[in-house]
Amino acid sequence: MHRVASSGSNGGSVRARKEKKLTYVLNDANDTQHCAGVNCLDVLKSSVSSDQSYLFTGSRDGTLKRWSFDEDAPLCSATFESHVDWVNDAALAGDSTLVSCSSDTTVKTWDSLSDGVCTRTLRQHSDYVTCLAVAANNCNVVASGGLGGEVFIWDIEAALSPVTKANDSTEDSSSNGANGLGSSQPVASLRNVGSSNNISVQSSPSHGYAPTVAKGHKESVYALAMNDTGTTLVSGGTEKVLRVWDPRTGSKSMKLRGHTDNVRVLLLDSTGRFCLSGSSDSMIRLWDLGQQRCLHTYAVHTDSVWALACTSSFTHVYSGGRDQSLYLTDLGTRESVLLCTKEHPIQQLALQDDSIWVATTDSSVERWPAEVQSPQKVFQRGGSFLAGNLSFNRARVSLEGLNPPPAYKEPSITIPGSHPIVQHEILNNKRQILTKDAADSVKLWNITKGVVVEDFGKISFEEKKEELFEMVSIPSWFTVDTRLGCLSVHLETPQCFSAEMYSADLKVSGRPEDDKINLARETLKGLMGHWLAKKKHKPKPQASASGDILSVKDSKKNPTASKSEDSSAANDPVYPPFEFPSVSPPSIITEGSQGGPWRKKITEFTGTEDEKDFPLWCLDAVLNNRLPPRENTKLSFFLHPCEGSNVQVVTLGKLSAPRILRVHKVTNYVVEKMVLDSPLDSLAIDGGPQPLFAGNGLLPSGSKPWQKLKPSIEILCNNQVLAPEMSLATVRVYIWKKPEDLILNYRVAIAR
């Protein structure tokens, strides 16, 4: 503790630049399952070269997964992880390329038969990318659409990623960087889009390539469809119209009106002549693009239609949506039948052999019988009805209770998912989070270890939160959200470095018990431990006086740049309270000084990643033990004798101490001042002499005189005796409860 001047001047402040944040995503014990709604499906059917079929799924948890089937039992054979936000759509372009799009504003291509290799990242969009379309017989042609009315047509063989991240590889043979970046790659400019917090990247095209732009939409695009040869593209969205394009030139050929609400899904037949559309107005429409008119309207659903799948002959359509029902409709006779009902809205459908895969806002995926080869067999089971041509016809039938029972009761295969987290509470110790998932299961997480401490099962979330309450005050050093269905912990400098704890409280052995440990730095060490271990044999990066990381070449030019650094910082051990698991490890999401955001599991670092792919402040903290200036790490208070007592005044003016200082340290301060600065026999409390010593006063020889005298002192706040292990911050928040400087009182302990 030290005195604080009663007044002072603040120097001129300089506004700090906005630094990139680092996020780590915690995975539950089984990360082979999706933990959020499944937005997209596609099936890679067996071929001459391979008799294995695969199902690909993309989820709101930001990952894609490939599923194989051994005797019909689903097995997750690969996870594709690079997107940093929801995966909104995915499509296969040929037998070996998977294309995906995301709310992170990117389109990515993957080697679909690999262990999850991202081959390209395309960054032309400025907002969420919501939908894709692929030409079946010309798999190089892929269209992407999104918010803001953007539609791009890509030749994915010619396209090279304008910006490539640490975990993306490219086929550019001229690249010479560790992460595949060539010197000709442009630097991306970043800006916020609309009201969202997502960062969009605008880059000049690399190597002269630019996608074809289909200009015309003034509002968001939700659906795309392309014919097999890639000569016709149809788009729809919040404008409630269908626009038809020539994807080879980006020119618009027609605009079709009919829907009264957002167009959510589109299908084209192989020739590009006929088109099916589903809308938030609950209607399905069949269009003849040659005649530029709507042929039929089908009122089957009672709410928004989000998913369509059609037989190869384009005679029967399977449909699902917000009403949680899957229907089969004969486009010629208008006869419809309810195949099954779900517990969640249906997001997308995919046909495989005689079955249909159904994805919902739940994290699981199911395969249902569908008689795809002979749809008439379903109608022969009975229970069919004629689809109306106006939406109120179908709604009226539903209200009258005339809905027939579904044709199928149970799916043939279920791929289970983990239940997404729907509620969370950061506990006062700022190291644990209580969560509740969609199945009402309550768990306690330790975020500095990335593990579930305890699974309480289905209990009251509010009651457990009250039970776990601790009267402690630690600064909020992180934020958290559950947008991906799991815990995403965000660290931003300098706020994340505001929390410290004593090593004794963390049970860290080998360090003095009152040694202060910064929670963010130790957490970063745990997250980057695998990267550091793989990188040890490489030369250590140096830092310039301005804080910029220097290359090895630059450091030779400036050998004094790192003299003040702690050269052993990178070799500090990871303490047990900050060790992350190697089974179901967390993933890091961040952004460096080049490229865009990237995501990777901490155990998949190879040590070859460029340091520029990490935020500079993270490297400074982990490699150099250099933390930014922090605010509010100390607390000011006054220390006075209790009112009415004759105990001497041990100090005048305001004191300052670390927020985490324990009350027993204040007691020691008072004792030391009283014993050293005043004759003890002259002290009295409440008009009479009181014993100031506890014990017999006998200490080993060599002790200082005041150490042989042990006054029994109590520290109070608001007339409440404080527990010795309370921190000053806790006293201020829970006992003092005032905005003014804290006032503590001391007295000789009253004998009881």
TrEMBL record:
CDD domains: Ubl_WDR48, WD40. WD repeats lie at residues 80-111, 122-157, 214-255, 256-297. GO terms for biological process: double-strand break repair via homologous recombination. GO terms for molecular function: ubiquitin binding. Residues 173-184 have a biased composition (Low complexity). Pfam families: DUF3337 (PF11816), WD40 (PF00400). Keywords: Repeat, WD repeat. Residues 558-570 have a biased composition (Polar residues). Residues 166-187, 533-600 are annotated as: Disordered. PANTHER family: WD REPEAT-CONTAINING PROTEIN 48. Belongs to the WD repeat WDR48 family. This is Uncharacterized protein. It comes from Brassica campestris.
